[in-house]
Design brief:
The structure is a single chain. With 236 residues, the chain is of the alpha+beta class. It has two domains: 28-90, no CATH class; 120-234, no CATH class. The protein is built from ten helices and six strands; from the N terminus they run ααααβαβββββααααα. The chain has helices at 11-15, 28-46, 52-71, 77-90, 123-129, 174-177, 182-193, 195-206, 219-224, 228-234, and strands spanning 120-121, 134-137, 140-144, 151-155, 163-166, 169-172. A six-stranded antiparallel beta sheet has the order 1-6-5-4-3-2. A hairpin with a 6-residue loop joins strand 3 (140-144) and strand 4. It is globular and about 60 Å long.
Length: 236
């Protein structure tokens, strides 16, 4: 068999590996959302006031960014909505421009209001909550995670927690609450006089168990204001 130079191919050309398949394209919207969540976490970390809301929001933003980057999507519309809220909450608030009137003399400085007396002692309510995971009153919820003594305070008109009860002491997050909290303090002070009786009164008035929130249908439970399972478990 004779050698034909035209059909000769160098060995290097024959053994040259083929190009690796291109990596699948990353959804640009997912990448942008991950970046926005990471930036939100950084904004929370830079805030001078590191309260519970700021710390929890920073951790949530980082966790959601990592999971979104890994799985490529949110598990639900509610989770996607919460991510958008975290990004919005992290943005610095822009102060409205001040229009100064140089034709008038400057106003006299206004004295700063006296600081509110926080924290506030709630030892009875705190002690009761060590046996419960959640306790409901009219427009007010006290919640505690299992194994944790810290109790979180929530009100119906605000999203998220507005205060905490730690070691029997109430601390309100007035920035989240939107007011000094005098009305909420008065309500908690009334409950503190007899927390169990206050829970029973709410159950009778609302028709719902003040612990689990279920409808009270049994006449004895309605009279007691607490369902039979909750009463046997927590008030026996």
């Amino acid at each position: 068999m004779s050698f034909n130079p035209a059909s000769y191919k160098p060995v290097a050309a024959i053994l040259r590996p083929t190009a690796a398949p291109a990596a699948p394209a990353v959804d640009s919207s997912v990448a942008e959302k991950v970046k926005a969540l990471e930036q939100a976490a950084a904004q929370f970390a830079r805030r001078p006031r590191q309260d519970d809301f700021t710390i929890r929001s920073q951790a949530a933003a980082l966790d959601m960014a990592a999971k979104l980057e890994r799985f490529g999507s949110f598990v639900s519309d509610a989770q996607a909505s919460y991510a958008d809220k975290l990004i919005a909450w992290a943005k610095p608030r822009e102060a409205a421009p001040v229009q100064r009137d140089f034709t008038q003399a400057p106003a006299a400085p206004v004295a700063a209001p006296e600081p509110k007396a926080y924290p506030m002692a709630l030892p009875k309510l705190f002690a009761l909550m060590q046996r419960l995971a959640k306790l409901r009153f009219d427009g007010l919820t006290i919640a505690r995670k299992n194994g944790d003594s810290l109790c979180w305070v929530k009100v119906a008109e605000r999203e998220g927690v507005v205060g905490k009860i730690e070691n029997g002491q109430l601390v309100l997050f007035t920035g989240r609450l939107g007011n000094p909290g005098d009305a909420l303090k008065a309500k908690l002070a009334a409950i503190e006089q007899d927390p169990e009786a206050a829970a029973v009164l709410y159950g009778k008035a609302s028709g719902n168990c003040s612990i689990c929130g279920r409808d009270l249908t049994d006449p004895e439970s309605i009279e007691r204001g607490i369902g039979p399972i909750c009463a046997g478990k927590y008030f026996s």
